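User: Quick sanity check before I run a bigger batch. Here is a single chain. Can you write out its predicted 3D structure?
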Amino acid sequence: MKIDNLWLKYTEEDVTKVQEVCDRYKQCLDDGKTERECVAQVIEMARQKGYRELHSVIKEGGTPKAGDKLYAVQMDKSIVLFQMGKKPVSEGMNILGAHIDSPRIDIKQRPLYETEGFAYLDTHYYGGIKKYQWTTIPLALHGVVAKKDGTVVKISIGEKDDEPVFVITDLLIHLAGEQMAKKADAVIAGEKLDLLIGNRPLQQSEELDKEEKEAVRANILRLLSETYGIEEEDFLSADLEIVPAGRARDLGIDRSMILAYGHDDRVCAFTSVFAMLDLADEITEHTLCCLLVDKEEIGNVGATGMASQFFENTIAELVAATERDSQLLVRRALAGSKMLSSDVSAGFDPLYADVYEKKNSAFLAKGLAFNKYTGSRGKRGSSEATAEFVAQIRRIMEDADVMYQFSELGKVDAGGGGTIAHLMAEYGMNVIDSGVSVLNMHAPYEVVSKADVYEAVRGYRAFLRA
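Assistant: Done. Predicted structure follows.
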């Protein structure tokens, strides 16, 4: 099956639509560099389309009916949207599922220290990264600090033009002979990924105890207290993430691509949300669902990951509110659903062609990419879609004139990766991985084609309608 570059088939009207979708997507990336920020955005967009919080509706004694739009949130880090269909939930849903966490660097519980006149924050990296890629680039600090009195302080430093940025330093090339001889995974040790945040000491005064030797650290604490009302001990109850600073940018003289942090997997998350909200005025046969979860990059663990009971519990609430309290009906709802596990694919990079199997690779600007299976080295950790479900997906895409391709993640022995698909497949539902092709996956800045972003929205919308 030969697939031409999508730009060759687009009309001027299509190009305008591509740009509109991608401008919207870039703004979402700029405003959503953490899970909490993504969830807050989705709630705002959903409410504008008439969505209401599920548990509030249930508490008020409401009975959701066809056309009603609902959402539920887990710890501000995961969210699920529902648009009720004509058929009971127990007859299955059309589900789009993606994750909204991305590889990054996190702040440790006791992070602040000073050495030789520099103040640093101690860190622990999150997810699979090439550590050396995170040095010498402008970095921003995002997250929240929860105080003992119950207040939560939002933090975002490094995104505005008048704000400072931060950096993780690297050894100058003139002294790096021994470092350069190391393997790539050892060039930068994890414990050296500490964030440089200050160099100016607090002026000697009564504020600075005569025994205090760390004047730079003391000055940082003064600024945090004055600006945010944060004390050092408040770091113990903080979710603070280090991410690349700056906006998502058009890439290429032709502006055909987007360079940004967090395409994996927010390019699939936000396009799924766009598709879901595009259908807000339609009443479909089956209930529609868009599920965005946390912790995929570290194994889907924890209360906000796909392995938690959040989704299943929410379905149980929905079934009880619309049919009756029945675990059997919950099981039927899950087993009878079909799902696109919306996660990115590895885009073919001609500069590293030796690790790809070309005819089974995803290419930028050639449409929404489907993976019949993922996993690594013998499909380990994979959820493999059935032939029948793959045929159904092909029909849905072609009936909607959506451009699509099928791919694998590199050569069989080269490596691989996983998604949330296998966890949903455990319920017995039909699941297949689908998403946008990405270059530089897991790097601080990743690359996608604008055409693929547009086709993802169209493909997800077609699937929901099916």
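The chain has two domains: 6-102+261-465, 104-244.

User: Great, the batch can go ahead then.
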